[in-house]
Amino acid sequence: MIMENLLSRKLLNFVKLDAADLELLDRIVANPRTLPARMDLILEGEAPTDVHLILKGFACRYKLVPDGGRQIMAYLVPGDICDLHVFLLEHMDHSLATLSECTVVDIQRDEILAMLARPRLAQALLLSAMVDEGTLREWVVNLGRRQGEERVAHLLCELLSRLRAVGLVSSDSYRLPITQLDLAGTVGQSAVHVNRVLKSLRASKLITLEHSNLVILDLPALEKLAGWNPNYLHLRRMTAAQV
Amino acid sequence: MIMENLLSRKLLNFVKLDAADLELLDRIVANPRTLPARMDLILEGEAPTDVHLILKGFACRYKLVPDGGRQIMAYLVPGDICDLHVFLLEHMDHSLATLSECTVVDIQRDEILAMLARPRLAQALLLSAMVDEGTLREWVVNLGRRQGEERVAHLLCELLSRLRAVGLVSSDSYRLPITQLDLAGTVGQSAVHVNRVLKSLRASKLITLEHSNLVILDLPALEKLAGWNPNYLHLRRMTAAQV
DNA sequence: CGCCCCGTTGAGGAACGTCAATAAGAGTGG
DNA sequence: CCACTCTTATTGACGTTCCTCAACGGGGCG
């Protein structure tokens, strides 16, 4: 089975690309490597070297706090590029790690420059970076203003949209290959409480979640609970739903 | 009294600038306007037109949530530039408003392009944007992993660093022209609870706060409480402390 | 088979929210 | 300058959300 170029698929949500653009992207994703779950890509304080592109699996940005806990500040899902700031920042102010097993491409400096030299690709990459920032702002809202169930519901809605944009959703269902401990580190609550929140979402017939398979049973109700508004993802074109 | 060019002062924290760079910045800040407190600069959903530069006062990014509350996601203090993404995003995914009376410069498209055409200014602006993003990540940590007193303490430490970088701090003291309701909307707690947190910080002899004048009485202790680590601000050079 | 990580549940306590009342300032018009 | 009003700050009482500690079960993997 041929692996579709998820980078192209993602960027096509923002801009049109010509054949040469697509060919460059195909060349870039040609040599991926596979990493196990729970593996650091780069640590806070280290000097960034290359740019990472996720093709498969979930990764995250995180920081450790003095009391031993960790806060996840971003999910990196297939099609996501991280650390375009390689060229500017001397030291990482956060760490990067896989959550599940991941397929990753290390993009070299000259390949990034080749992309930025193409106006439409440059625009798509910048737009994608602005969306990441908008997502961060929405996470601040999520942590600051919503409580348990709404918080998790919002995260599930966001992942639905983001994964749908790269064709990884069918019938409001997707793989969510993370533990409840990771989920707790994401929504800023204890693992015990997240477990109870999930129990409650299941009891309300909003979702099922077994063996890392999430099924959203009642999307309108989940979106309503979450106060969902996808404008911060700035998706201009919706990709066709998969069968 | 001549108003110092706070934009230059801020950018000099990141890069060296030559005389022509500084002259361009002086031209840009030449025609400011003054806005009253609690005034929107732009609303979520609107199309951004120009870029805003704050010269005096506090402004913020915020979103309203269905239940009527508002979450502040960023503070804009003197020297801060917002919305460089004017050129890319069709609609704002959040709103911008003044918290106190503000002096603001509206920067036109061609002036932005003139700055970006100068390599060092471009680098400084991009670095500044990355710092904004790093700040957003730290706020996620603040909301997700810290409780009341640590949260407020962290915010106060951050503002100390940021205001010091533009010369608005003397002896660990600065103007904090915001209400407790705004503070609550920032740290994701109720105004009543923020009031009690402040009371506790005062009782611990860490700060005083009267008439919008904040005095940090014991900075090491406040930083320890906050788990303060300024690396995300990426300040390379410290500006001299003001008398 | 045994171990370890993960998910689940119970019990009790700490942190935080809501409602409500009062005080203290700040601005406004007379 | 004073009376009035509106916003902001402060405090108490009480309820809710969430955390911590602890125990137990289940499934994957050596």
Mean pLDDT of chain A: 91
Number of helices of chain A: 8
Helix content of chain A: 25-40%
Major sheet characteristics of chain A: 4 strands, antiparallel
What is the 3D form of chain A? globular
Based on secondary structure, the structural category of chain A is alpha+beta
Low-pLDDT residue spans of chain A: 238-243
What radius of gyration of chain A results from the CA coordinates? 18 Å
Furnish the topology, listing elements before pairings.
The structure is a homodimer of 243-residue chains.
Chain A: H1 6-11, H2 19-28, E1 33-35, E2 40-42, E3 51-56, E4 59-64, E5 70-76, E6 81-82, E7 95-98, E8 102-107, H3 109-116, H4 119-145, H5 148-164, E9 173-175, H6 180-187, H7 191-203, E10 207-210, E11 213-216, H8 219-226
Antiparallel strand pairs in A: 1-8, 2-7, 3-6, 3-8, 4-5, 4-7, 9-11, 10-11
Chain B binds a DNA duplex (30 and 30 nucleotides) through residues 147-148, 179-181, 189-193, 195-196, 198-199, 211.
Report what the structure shows:
Two copies of one chain form a homodimer. Chain A is α+β, with helices and mostly antiparallel strands. In chain A, 40% of the residues lie in helices and 20% in strands. Chain A contains eight helices and eleven strands. The first copy, chain A, has helices spanning 6-11, 19-28, 109-116, 119-145, 148-164, 180-187, 191-203, 219-226; strands at 33-35, 40-42, 51-56, 59-64, 70-76, 81-82, 95-98, 102-107, 173-175, 207-210, 213-216. In chain A, the strands form three sheets. A four-stranded antiparallel sheet of chain A has the order 1-8-3-6. Chain A has a four-stranded antiparallel sheet with strand order 2-7-4-5. Chain A has a three-stranded antiparallel sheet with strand order 9-11-10. In chain A, helix 5 (148-164) crosses helix 7. The longest helix of chain A has 27 residues, at 119-145. The model of chain A is unreliable at 238-243 (pLDDT under 50). Chain A binds chain B through residues 44-45, 61, 63, 65-67, 69, 71, 73-74, 85, 88-91, 93-94, 123, 126-127, 130, 132-134, 136-141, 143-146, 185, 187-188, 227, 231-232, 234, and chain B through 44-45, 61, 63, 65-67, 69, 71, 73-74, 85, 88-91, 93-94, 123, 126-127, 130, 132-134, 136-141, 143-146, 185, 187-188, 227, 231-232, 234. Chain B binds a DNA duplex (30 and 30 nucleotides) through residues 147-148, 179-181, 189-193, 195-196, 198-199, 211.
